[in-house]
Amino acid sequence: MDNLLTVQRAQPAPPCTVVIFGASGDLAKRKLIPALYNLVACGQGMMPAKSAVLGFARREMSLDQFRQSAHDWTTRFSRLKVDEACWATFADGLDYLSGLDRADGFAKLKAKLEAIEKARGIPPNRVYYLATPPEAIGESVERLAQAGLINAPDAPNFSSVVVEKPIGHDLPSALETNRVLVKHLDESQIFRIDHYLGKETVQNLLVLRFSNNIFERLWGSRNVDHVQITVAEAEGVGTRAAFYDRAGALRDMVQNHILQTLSLLTMEAPVSLDATAIRDAKLNVLRTIRPITPEHARANTVRARYGAGVDADGKQVAGYMDEPGVPDNSRAETFVALKMYIDNWRWSGVPFFIRTGKRMKRRASSIYVQFKDVPQILFNRDSVIPANALTIRIQPDEGFSFDVMTKRPGLDLVLQPVRMNLSYRTAFGDGASPDGYERLLLDVMDGDHTLFPSAQFVEKSWELVQGISDLWSDGARVPMAEYPAGSWGPNEADELIRTAGRVWHEP
Questions:
Q1: Per the residue annotation, which of 71, 226, 257, 449 is the catalytic one?
Q2: Are 461 and 300 in contact (CB under 8 A)?
Q3: CA separation for the pair 479, 399 (Å, rounded)
Q4: Is 296 marked active-site?
Q5: Is the pTM here over 0.90, yes or no?
Q6: What are 418-435's pLDDT values in tens digits?
Q7: Which 3-state string (H, E, C) describes 1-44?
């Protein structure tokens, strides 16, 4: 039976030009160009035909070369098969300009934009996507402002700047990045993108919590025993060693993806679906996370790096220190496990266990909410009944399941745990979930900040992560552990949760 309720219908974004800085780079190839094509190809009219996409990079390339390269990238990386008729429509609005690194590059960018807008008959609405290294953010924004390419926030036509994570590499650099951004832009013009928040299951956290009374009434310390968040990656550092060794798992994953997910999972109901209300509710969670003190650092934190082992495909792989590009004096961790507490009325006393790492057993991201045991009075007087648990699968098999106890059919009274399961793929079909970048790019065009971290959230998350990083700085308080590639992490992570009387749930 169809019982659909549309609360907010996504409307076609206003005509605009999306300028991709670093258009010949990996992010543009794998994510941005395919996502923009899918907004045209999905058949829902989400991106108006007159909108344009302008690649802006250092590399010299003809327009025909760029369009052919973009076609090749989309064919390889798009979730949708390329339809040549749709591609022709998309490619008609696809343009390219070199000179990102030249003195006159931004003057040429301004002239190019004006020519595109005149030819296509569209207003000067512009989205500048900075798919560039973090250290180039400041210079790019400065040069946009100097070239007169940023409109006032109350102007008839919008200027939006999209900044990729990481925002800084520590708290001082994050503060400096935000300072540079707000020097030339209003906060309403800044979109700090975290593609993890575009995932369908992450977005569904709000719906699951605040449109299902059964879960919201159970959500808190009265009923929840503990929560686990796992973000496991099967691959190693690959070609990203130069970046990754400066970041490590704590900065790369915990500071953004995991704290964003944790805040959506645990926040209070916002006063409305307005972006400001949701952002404020998320920020309040960070404000109540208990800082980890030096005396509790070893009991509540684990850092490790992978050694040699066997990957998810059964292939022998090298350890982190033997990966190409990793320096001999590396101090970067590839795995983090944390035990955290949220000191507010709802979650007081509930432990939150977090783990993330590379070269783990398989690629899997999930949230596991275990409810408290039933009293040992009736069915479990002489045995232990497994606790109810809600598992929210973020990737790769998006969906969620709920574990309950039931009686096995038969004359004897035999209890058996069963899993009530929803798979997005089964319920809605393959290809039903858009890529995270599709949703987030559309939100930028619409000016919707709901799924984008605020400056305060970024700074508070860095404050929490900086505190942990400082505890690890001497290398002695929390020694670096090791785990074999292809495992679920080091023994120290198992011990961290075991001492709290729990075990890791395998996602």
A1: 257
A2: no
A3: 37
A4: no
A5: no
A6: 777 877 777 666 655 677
A7: CCCCCCCCCCCCCCCCEEEEECCCCHHHHHHHHHHHHHHHHCCC
